[in-house]
Amino acid sequence: MSTLAEPLDVADVATQFTVVRRRHTGRWLAAVVVAVLGVVVAQNVLSNSRFGWDVVGQYISDASIIRGLGTTLFLTVVCMAIGTALAVLLAVMRLSSNPVVNGAAFVYVSFFRGTPVLVQLLFWFNLAALYPVISFGIPGVHLDANTLITPMLAAIMGLALNEAAYMSEIVRAGILSVEWGQSDAASALGLTKGQTMRRIVLPQAMRVIVPPTGNETIGMLKTTALVSVIAVPELLFSSQVIYARNYETIPLLIVASLWYLAVTAVLGVGQYYIERHFARGNRNLPPTPIQRLRTFARAITTRSTR
User: The ABC transmembrane type-1 domain covers which part of the protein (predicted)?
Assistant: First the structure.
């Protein structure tokens, strides 16, 4: 007659073996190499007087630079808001079973994705050459295009309409990521197509939509530099005006670059937390930057005490 084996005590088994931590020699070696290269590059850049760091410090908070930064942020927010709103409409049109509606959205997306945004900006800026008077088809309305199409309006139209074409594909991909069975269930419950889209589909599609939308926002921030060609006083244009007077080209370009990097870093952190918000349904949420920093500091402290 067989007898059952006695259960093993985990504590007793653990005492019979010596636990050795895995050594990550290659990882630490790579970290040291990268750190050394970073120090060398930083020392070379900071010690090179041709960069004009004193001029950078002088103009980093200049009033015209700050105003240009404000214009850049304004263009980014407005163009992304308009572009996203149009993108949702275009995405729904692309998913429509009506061939006319679907085809119109396809032509729009193809046109604005197929031509450079710089060309589109110049086109809107010179719209008065095609339509000197704009009436919108309303009797008695005669608007002077040269007065109506200001550089700022041309910049907003060019950037927003172009962004709508790219964002529409992102929104469409997010909508397609939601199972169609949920739409059928919502229809069975009596919800209209609009209610289903607003309450069922789009909230779930946000997990797919948010990450590339964050990238598009950061891209929009940098794309606003193109409007300097139509004399919109954004960040790059303000820097160009200053270095056209004092001939300090490199330092003023560094000033603009530093502000772009700072705002991009803030947008990146915001994107991270928005992604984390919409990923709350996941069991394992990615650690926040503060949690990563704490983990890294704890690992360094543990190694130093040993």
Answer: 69-271
